[in-house]
Design a protein that fits this description.
Blueprint: H1 3-22, H2 27-34, H3 38-45, H4 53-63, H5 67-109
Length: 119
């Protein structure tokens, strides 16, 4: 995660946590209002999970945040997702290709295939 992305995610999670605290909600009630599990809210607030724009919209609505703040946070979540999508695609495609090459090399170098007898 780049420095800017990390800063933006920290800002987003801090504002969401502050909104929940200001609304006087615990994780369970916040989740009930937003239609999101308490576990997911905890992961978002602890930066273990990057929230989708829909998650942020639902949380802000459940917390009763002003529409202007909601729009800013949704845009921030959207930009975080856009930053994360491209590197993930490159990593996955490289990993799959490398894995296929390793399997191909192992199959080509195999001289004998043994199986255990059926008991």
């Amino acid at each position: 995660m780049t420095g800017k992305t990390s800063d933006n995610q920290a800002r987003l999670t801090a504002e969401l946590r502050q909104l929940r605290a200001t609304a006087g909600l615990g994780g369970i009630e916040a989740g009930r209002r937003a239609g999101i599990s308490q576990s997911k809210i905890s992961k978002i607030e602890n930066q273990l999970l990057r929230p989708s724009p829909d998650d942020v919209r639902a949380l802000c609505q459940g917390y009763g945040s002003p529409i202007e703040q909601r729009n800013v946070l949704v845009r921030l979540a959207d930009s975080l997702r856009a930053d994360a999508i491209e590197p993930r695609r490159v990593t996955l495609s490289r990993s799959a290709r490398n894995m296929q090459q390793r399997i191909r090399r192992r199959e080509a170098s195999a001289h004998l295939l043994r199986t255990s007898p059926a008991w």
